[in-house]
Write a structure and sequence with these properties.
eight-stranded antiparallel beta barrel, 7% helix, mainly beta
Amino acid sequence: MFSKFQFLIIVTLVSFSQLITAQDKPKKSKYTAHNKGKIFVSFGGNREKYSKSDIHFSGDNFDFTVNDAVAHDVPKGWNIDYINPARMTIPQTNMKFGYFINDHYSISLGVDHMKYVFTQDQTATVSGYINLPPTEDGAVFNGNYNNTPVDFTDGKFLKFEHTNGLNYVTAELSRFDDISTIFNLPNTDKFQINITEGVGTGVLYPKTDATVLSKAEHDDWHVAGYGFSAKAGLNFNFFKYFFIQTELKGGYINMPDIQISNNSSDKASQHFLFIQSIIAFGVNYKI
């Protein structure tokens, strides 16, 4: 039989081995501690502002530029259309699908569905010429223009908008950094704050609604140009899998090939800067 001393030694050794085993066993890391391998999908809305732009129109018997044209977006506000599949293209929206290639960097594809409307109630100068056949309604505007002021309020000379929409189809590279410790957040699996920055490029695929010199409009979707952009924002992660992301995004758009009528010779071109504020809701999942 064991003596009390031998029994005490055995109990001590067993306890010590269990302590060592417990220390060697790695702790399970939080889901939010690593991003590599996660996919994410987001959907949201935006507001935007545009710089002035020179819009050049050319075709059979006309070639003119509207100088320093002013434009605006078409905000919908909080509306059920954002979640109605049949009406999702009516508001200004942002859709994105992405993948984390490592803990800090993600790649994504998305569509910024912006809306661009030439402000009708404006007077701008026009340079160029119009020499339409007398039988066409737009012939009333025939003449030579040399920085000539034109009042566009009645819409007879020009209506011009990308409202279905100014679609920026973009590929982005973004960086994410967890800044939860700044706010003393103890459990990032419940709530985490990330700062994010990124750059992107893509093509413009607008559906342009234009009435130029009373010509019949042509509003098919069409690849019209390209763009570059940069962004910065905050990502708020809730209960591991859900997030809200706010972004401020700015960039440059150049569209040298905008369709404006049923005549393939009639074209418009423009380039401008934009700034966009975005709020999006999303989910992520590690694959």
